[in-house]
Model the fold of this input.
Amino acid sequence: MSGTSGGAFGDLFGRRTLAKMGLGFGISLLLVYLLGTAVGWERTLDQLGRADPVWVAAGCLSTFLCLASWGRAWQIVLAVGGVEVPYRKLVVTYFAATFANYVTPFGQAGGEPFIAYVLSRDTEADYEQSLASVVTADLLNLLPFFNFAAVGTAYLVVQTSLGDTETVGNLVLALGLLAVSIPLVVWFAWRHRDAVEELVVWVVRPVARVTSRVSVDGTRGRIERFYGSIEDIAGEPRELARALGYSYVGWLFFTLPMVAALRAVDASMRLLLVFFIVPASTIAGLVPTPGGLGAVEGALTGLLVEIGRLPADTAFAVTTLYRVESFVFALLVGGIAALWVTARV
Done:
């Protein structure tokens, strides 16, 4: 499959995509600059200059272990679906797919088909198997996401006076709506698969009339193979429980870089507050910018000020370090992995 992997990234990063990526990063960096201007760049840069590099390195290591854990969950789900891929190979593909997901517009808002495409081009899995495994792994990751958020929310409500603020109330409402709506959508798509199939075919039929690249019969076959792969995966609850365990480990390591960023500038915050702030900030990552750049920084800074009671310049410094440890570090490692996937024979 190595010969096609290079083509996969070549297809994904054509001129038009690169132009959109450049525009997205440009707008995002402008938003970050304006945020820093409002907070005060001089005070923020002073704190960043005094940050402890050991804690920053620890945050980067935590991000690496997070992605490695999620990659292991991915491998388990794939194996349940009948696709055996060595972990050493798959984890590189996972890092590369994460890079692709982070740098492309709308990647964070719905990157499952995107990641499945990379996976199918770099393994023996077909696209439907890849998409089924990615969707299943993402659904497994939602459980620790909501659990961590619920623990942080409970602490806010019970132990502090912050639970009554408008910001926290809106975030709790948003998290609650996600916790209810996502399972409902999944349940409907599973129980009413014929209706889903007909809806997709209805969308595809006009396209099939003007191009030979898409056909109604081919679309029906893909949908049926996708649901068949989901059924195969759902038939192994023990293996799914193992994958879920790795998802929880990954989410813990996803949260710890915030703790490292706080320690790096000698700031403090209760861990249970971090359990609320990090999941809540990921909602901002759904905006159509690369990796939520710009929106996540604004959300995190505001949350650290209002909930963490940090000064604005300290909050922005912590946010910057956190994003370096998580987003920027993931881009660096993922970019190297993407080059490796492209070049390996």
User: Anything to note?
Assistant: Confidence is low (pLDDT under 50) at residues 1-6. DSSP finds 15 helices and no strands in the chain. The CA atoms of residues 6 and 338 lie 9 Å apart. Residues 2-343 form one domain.
